[in-house]
Amino acid sequence: MRRTSPTAPGPASLDATDRQILRELQGDGRMTNVELAKRVGLSAPPCLRRVRRLEETGVLRGYHAEVEPNALGWEITFFALVGLESQKGAILDAFEAMVRDWPEVRECHMIRGGGDFLLRLVARNAAHENELTGRLTGAPNVLRVTTLQTIRTSKDDAGVPIED
Question: What CATH number has the domain spanning 14-56?
């Protein structure tokens, strides 16, 4: 699970150039610093300094490649709404630690209203989905699990809106 950096500056401390850098990198994290600098109207050295500062302060948390799940045999994406028997810190922490070790769990969010956690999982097929659901329902301190299988995804934007 990703956590925000305690040193990350607030939105007010980012100027228009920082925001443009973030927009550009969020759209294409593979571009060279020279290309990024050109797009935001800076020379390469100050652009690189800004990118490094955004990384060091935790605003830029990393770079990744987006992989097509079906191409690697992950046919099913589903969500699981999980309710625990208790909201004691040790129980919440133990559940998070458990699912952190499951490679099929791609996201884990502690939520309010209707459950304790919302998970996004991938499965190879229906039998694998059933196995994962069974592992969840049989896990310590799990009271209930509701699963929702994705039929189609019409929007899946990475990151967040970056406003001026």
Answer: 1.10.10.10
Please return the burial class of 58, using the count of CB atoms within 10 Å of its CB with bins 0-12, 13-18 and 19+: middle
Closest to 63 in 3D by CA, of 32, 30, 102:
30
pLDDT tens digits along 1-58: 344 445 566 766 899 999 999 999 999 999 999 999 999 999 999 999 999 999 999 9
Specify the CATH number for 69-149; select among 3.60.20.10, 2.60.120.10, 3.30.70.920, 1.10.10.10: 3.30.70.920
Q: How many CB atoms lie within 10 A of CB 152?
A: 4
Q: Which two tokens stand for residue 25?
A: 């990198």
Give the global pTM: 0.83
Pairwise CA distance, residues 92 & 4, whole Å = 19
Q: Which 3 state secondary structure label does DSSP give 50?
A: helix
